[in-house]
Amino acid sequence: MKQVQYLYAVIAVVGLALIYLFQRFDYLAFFRDLLAIEMLPTANFTFAFNRVSRFILNDLFAILLIFALFRNRNYVLVAFAVQLFGLLVVLPLYLYLKLTIEGPSEISSPLLSHLHRIIIHPVMILLLIPAFYFKRKPTA
């Protein structure tokens, strides 16, 4: 059983690393080519689709890492709740501000750069790891 747990952890870490290394990957073009869909999306739609795709993949790999580290169903449910909050509240707010103020450019102003890092990198989910660790740690 430990081997499966290690395998999940390796898959999660490698997945997070690959998403980071290929952060300029165009998910929309990939799916458009894969499904042979003819469309000319706007720059805003392409930007939003790629950010949402990266957000979801990052958080799913981070949740897999939480599962591999703790093997606790409740921790995974809390992580999914945090991901859902980010997906339904924080990400739309970021996309609205980013696309209204700056447009789909890759460079963010100081106002949005910190919000960008919280959204695009799985910071909210990964902060749960030390929280779960200290919650599980027996007090002396």
Task: Give descriptors for this structure.
140 residues, mainly alpha
Structural account:
The chain is an all-alpha fold. The chain has one domain. The chain is built from seven helices and no strands. It has helices at 2-21, 27-34, 43-70, 73-101, 110-120, 123-126, 128-136. The longest helix is centred in the middle third of the chain and has 29 residues, at 73-101. It is globular. It starts with a helix and ends with a helix. The mean pLDDT is 87.
**Major sheet description:** none
Taking the alpha carbons of the first and last residues, their distance comes to 29 Å
Oligomer: single chain
Query: What does the average pLDDT come to?
Result: 87
Helicity range? over 70%
Tell the overall outline: globular
The total domain count is: 1
Secondary-structure element pattern, one letter each: HHHHHHH
- How many helices? The count is 7
Topology:
Layout: H1 2-21, H2 27-34, H3 43-70, H4 73-101, H5 110-120, H6 123-126, H7 128-136
Helix pairs in contact: 1-3, 3-4, 4-5
Summarize the structure.
By secondary structure, the protein is mostly helical. Helix content is 78%, strand content 0%.
